[in-house]
Amino acid sequence: MMEIVCRAGVQVTGEGAREVHDDIIVEDRVRLFLNDEPLTTLVASADRLDDLGVGFVISEGLVDAVDAVEVEGNDVRITAPARRDVELATESSGGSCALCEPKRVGSSITVTAETIRAVTASIESEVWRKTGAVHCSVLFCDGEFVTRACDVGRHNTVDKVVGYAALRGLDRSTCILGCTGRQPAGMVAKAANAGIPIVVSRAASTDRGILTAERAGLTLVCFSRGERFTIYTHPERVSDIFEELEKARA
Q1: What pTM was estimated for this model as a whole?
Q2: Which residues contact residue 60 at a Cβ distance below 8 angstroms, ignoring those fewer than 6 apart?
Q3: Given 19, 82, 181, 242, which residue has the most CB atoms within 10 angstroms?
Q4: CA dist 37 → 71, 89, 161, 184, 193 (Å)
């Protein structure tokens, strides 16, 4: 479970000031080791650390599969056949990402606009409602909700749901990833490296995020809120919308 603490503060409104006691999410440091060598330290919420560690090494393209994972306190030790030619860099959010071209997604799945809206509606959590301080990702596979993960870091939420799927042998080429966070290149690359063909975000992308999705063969959907969403790349996977566009162009 994610750790939440109560902290006092002074709330100021147009009607004056009063003392309040708010639920605050706990921020931790998590150390990852790959084949007994230090890999990186993540700012994270210290729950589901096995999913976090496994998802990180897969979604950063460092490994294709994991042999074993062991959690000792906030240390996560992963054993896996690993690439040696990947350099880690620091993202704009402070997280780590691999400096390599993301994998190309291979998937023939299609979805409808209603599926996109169902994924969007599920990207909310009780922890967010209590604290307002976490991001959330969800994973749907074969049209069914599979898992939801929250964390202080948006990248970590993706790693957690990817790790969950990997540890349970789920076919990620049939999955849709839903996120609260914006989609720069590093976030899109995580989904591509994990083999997930569709990403739905309630937030925006960046130019490099869209370019990365286009090159990786990934369908990127952003600004998904209520009835509205914008498909930036590979709209053919959203079948009813694509058919509507084709008719309009004819």
Answers
A1: 0.91
A2: 86, 88, 96, 97, 98, 189, 190, 193
A3: 181
A4: 15, 17, 24, 29, 22
